[in-house]
Amino acid sequence: MEKKQPLRGNKLIIFGILFTAFMLFVGYKILFNSNDETNITAINQKLKSGKGIEQFDKGLEYYDQKKYTEASKYFEESINNGFPVAHALLGECKLHLNDLKSAQYHLLQALAVENGENELAGYYSGVEYNLGMVYYMQKDTKNAIIHLQKANQLGNKDANTYLSKIR
Protein backbone atom coordinates (compact mmCIF):
# COMPACT_ATOMS: atom_id res chain seq x y z
CA MET A 1 0.00 0.00 0.00
CA GLU A 2 1.35 3.36 -1.02
CA LYS A 3 1.64 6.00 1.69
CA LYS A 4 -0.07 9.33 0.82
CA GLN A 5 2.09 12.41 0.91
CA PRO A 6 0.81 15.60 2.56
CA LEU A 7 -0.02 18.55 0.33
CA ARG A 8 2.88 20.91 -0.22
CA GLY A 9 3.67 24.03 -2.11
CA ASN A 10 1.22 25.11 -4.82
CA LYS A 11 -1.12 22.21 -4.15
CA LEU A 12 -1.47 23.27 -0.52
CA ILE A 13 -2.14 26.91 -1.51
CA ILE A 14 -4.77 25.89 -4.10
CA PHE A 15 -6.44 23.55 -1.62
CA GLY A 16 -6.48 26.34 1.01
CA ILE A 17 -8.08 28.80 -1.43
CA LEU A 18 -10.72 26.29 -2.56
CA PHE A 19 -11.49 25.26 1.01
CA THR A 20 -11.83 28.91 2.12
CA ALA A 21 -14.13 29.68 -0.83
CA PHE A 22 -16.24 26.63 -0.01
CA MET A 23 -16.53 27.61 3.66
CA LEU A 24 -17.47 31.18 2.74
CA PHE A 25 -20.16 29.85 0.42
CA VAL A 26 -21.53 27.51 3.09
CA GLY A 27 -21.43 30.28 5.70
CA TYR A 28 -23.24 32.66 3.35
CA LYS A 29 -25.95 30.07 2.66
CA ILE A 30 -26.46 29.42 6.38
CA LEU A 31 -26.67 33.09 7.32
CA PHE A 32 -28.62 34.56 4.43
CA ASN A 33 -30.77 31.86 2.87
CA SER A 34 -34.23 33.06 3.92
CA ASN A 35 -35.86 29.66 3.33
CA ASP A 36 -33.45 27.92 5.68
CA GLU A 37 -34.30 27.67 9.38
CA THR A 38 -30.66 28.27 10.22
CA ASN A 39 -30.58 31.80 8.79
CA ILE A 40 -29.54 34.69 11.00
CA THR A 41 -33.13 35.86 11.56
CA ALA A 42 -34.22 32.43 12.74
CA ILE A 43 -31.14 32.10 14.94
CA ASN A 44 -31.86 35.50 16.53
CA GLN A 45 -35.50 34.57 17.06
CA LYS A 46 -34.52 31.31 18.76
CA LEU A 47 -32.09 33.16 21.03
CA LYS A 48 -34.72 35.78 21.82
CA SER A 49 -37.31 33.08 22.53
CA GLY A 50 -34.84 31.34 24.87
CA LYS A 51 -34.49 34.54 26.86
CA GLY A 52 -38.29 34.79 26.88
CA ILE A 53 -38.52 31.35 28.46
CA GLU A 54 -35.97 32.35 31.11
CA GLN A 55 -38.03 35.44 31.96
CA PHE A 56 -41.19 33.32 32.02
CA ASP A 57 -39.61 30.92 34.52
CA LYS A 58 -38.62 33.85 36.77
CA GLY A 59 -42.17 35.16 36.52
CA LEU A 60 -43.49 31.75 37.58
CA GLU A 61 -41.40 31.91 40.75
CA TYR A 62 -43.10 35.17 41.78
CA TYR A 63 -46.48 33.91 40.57
CA ASP A 64 -46.22 30.85 42.82
CA GLN A 65 -45.51 33.20 45.74
CA LYS A 66 -48.60 35.24 44.79
CA LYS A 67 -46.39 38.27 44.08
CA TYR A 68 -48.38 39.26 41.02
CA THR A 69 -46.83 42.69 40.44
CA GLU A 70 -43.31 41.24 40.29
CA ALA A 71 -44.48 38.27 38.23
CA SER A 72 -46.16 40.65 35.76
CA LYS A 73 -42.85 42.40 35.06
CA TYR A 74 -41.17 39.13 34.12
CA PHE A 75 -44.12 37.94 32.04
CA GLU A 76 -44.05 41.25 30.12
CA GLU A 77 -40.32 40.79 29.46
CA SER A 78 -41.01 37.22 28.38
CA ILE A 79 -43.56 38.40 25.82
CA ASN A 80 -41.16 41.10 24.59
CA ASN A 81 -38.52 38.40 24.13
CA GLY A 82 -40.66 36.24 21.88
CA PHE A 83 -42.57 33.96 24.26
CA PRO A 84 -46.26 34.81 23.72
CA VAL A 85 -47.49 32.01 25.99
CA ALA A 86 -46.73 34.42 28.86
CA HIS A 87 -49.86 36.41 27.90
CA ALA A 88 -51.92 33.78 29.74
CA LEU A 89 -50.22 34.24 33.08
CA LEU A 90 -49.77 37.97 32.64
CA GLY A 91 -53.52 38.20 32.09
CA GLU A 92 -54.14 36.13 35.21
CA CYS A 93 -51.78 38.33 37.24
CA LYS A 94 -53.62 41.42 36.02
CA LEU A 95 -56.89 39.75 37.04
CA HIS A 96 -55.52 39.17 40.57
CA LEU A 97 -54.39 42.81 40.64
CA ASN A 98 -57.92 43.86 39.58
CA ASP A 99 -56.62 45.49 36.38
CA LEU A 100 -59.49 44.07 34.36
CA LYS A 101 -58.87 45.99 31.15
CA SER A 102 -55.25 44.79 30.95
CA ALA A 103 -56.27 41.27 32.02
CA GLN A 104 -58.84 41.14 29.22
CA TYR A 105 -56.29 42.33 26.65
CA HIS A 106 -53.65 39.76 27.61
CA LEU A 107 -56.11 36.90 27.91
CA LEU A 108 -57.47 37.65 24.44
CA GLN A 109 -53.88 37.69 23.17
CA ALA A 110 -53.32 34.35 24.89
CA LEU A 111 -56.23 32.80 22.99
CA ALA A 112 -54.48 33.70 19.73
CA VAL A 113 -51.35 31.69 20.70
CA GLU A 114 -51.25 28.55 18.57
CA ASN A 115 -48.98 26.36 20.68
CA GLY A 116 -50.19 27.26 24.15
CA GLU A 117 -51.26 23.76 25.11
CA ASN A 118 -47.85 22.42 24.10
CA GLU A 119 -46.18 24.81 26.55
CA LEU A 120 -48.61 24.59 29.47
CA ALA A 121 -51.08 21.78 30.18
CA GLY A 122 -54.58 23.17 30.53
CA TYR A 123 -53.53 26.40 28.84
CA TYR A 124 -56.71 27.13 26.91
CA SER A 125 -59.11 26.03 29.66
CA GLY A 126 -57.31 28.34 32.09
CA VAL A 127 -57.34 31.25 29.66
CA GLU A 128 -61.05 30.75 28.93
CA TYR A 129 -61.81 30.50 32.65
CA ASN A 130 -59.87 33.66 33.52
CA LEU A 131 -61.42 35.55 30.62
CA GLY A 132 -64.84 34.42 31.83
CA MET A 133 -63.94 35.73 35.28
CA VAL A 134 -62.90 39.09 33.83
CA TYR A 135 -66.25 39.42 32.09
CA TYR A 136 -68.05 38.21 35.23
CA MET A 137 -66.32 40.91 37.30
CA GLN A 138 -67.18 43.50 34.64
CA LYS A 139 -70.82 42.35 34.88
CA ASP A 140 -70.77 41.31 31.20
CA THR A 141 -72.91 38.23 31.72
CA LYS A 142 -73.17 37.25 28.05
CA ASN A 143 -69.40 37.04 27.49
CA ALA A 144 -68.82 35.55 30.93
CA ILE A 145 -71.14 32.66 30.10
CA ILE A 146 -69.54 32.12 26.68
CA HIS A 147 -66.00 31.83 28.08
CA LEU A 148 -66.93 29.91 31.21
CA GLN A 149 -68.80 27.37 29.06
CA LYS A 150 -65.73 27.01 26.83
CA ALA A 151 -63.56 26.55 29.91
CA ASN A 152 -65.98 23.92 31.19
CA GLN A 153 -65.91 22.07 27.84
CA LEU A 154 -62.10 22.10 28.01
CA GLY A 155 -62.22 20.46 31.44
CA ASN A 156 -61.98 23.40 33.83
CA LYS A 157 -64.02 22.27 36.86
CA ASP A 158 -64.11 25.73 38.52
CA ALA A 159 -66.07 27.16 35.61
CA ASN A 160 -69.27 25.38 36.74
CA THR A 161 -69.24 27.22 40.06
CA TYR A 162 -69.52 30.59 38.39
CA LEU A 163 -71.84 29.37 35.66
CA SER A 164 -74.32 28.29 38.34
CA LYS A 165 -74.06 31.75 40.00
CA ILE A 166 -74.77 33.52 36.74
CA ARG A 167 -77.74 31.41 35.67
Give the helix tally.
9
Main pleated sheet: none
The end-to-end distance, rounded to whole angstroms, is: 91 Å
The CATH architecture: Alpha Horseshoe
Q: Segments where pLDDT lies below 50 for 5+ residues?
A: none
For the record, the count of structural domains works out to 1
Report helical residue fraction.
over 70%
Radius of gyration: 26 Å
- Mean pLDDT across all amino acids: 85
Q: What's the β-strand tally?
A: 0
Q: What is the N-to-C order of secondary-structure elements (H for helix, E for strand)?
A: HHHHHHHHH
Gross morphology: elongated
Overall structural class, as computed from helix and strand content, comes to: mainly alpha
- Relevant CATH superfamily: Tetratricopeptide repeat domain
CATH topology: Serine Threonine Protein Phosphatase 5, Tetratricopeptide repeat
CATH class: Mainly Alpha
InterPro entries: TPR-like_helical_dom_sf, TPR_rpt
Transmembrane segments: 12-31
Protein name: Tetratricopeptide repeat protein
Keywords: Membrane, Transmembrane, Transmembrane helix
Describe it for me?
The N and C termini lie far apart (91 Å). The mean pLDDT is 85. This protein has a single domain (46-166), classed as Tetratricopeptide repeat domain (Serine Threonine Protein Phosphatase 5, Tetratricopeptide repeat, Alpha Horseshoe), CATH 1.25.40. Helices cover 75% and strands 0% of the residues. With 167 residues, the protein is mainly α. Helix 3 (68-80) packs antiparallel against helix 4 (86-96) and helix 5 (100-111) packs antiparallel against helix 7 (123-137). InterPro entries: TPR-like_helical_dom_sf, TPR_rpt.
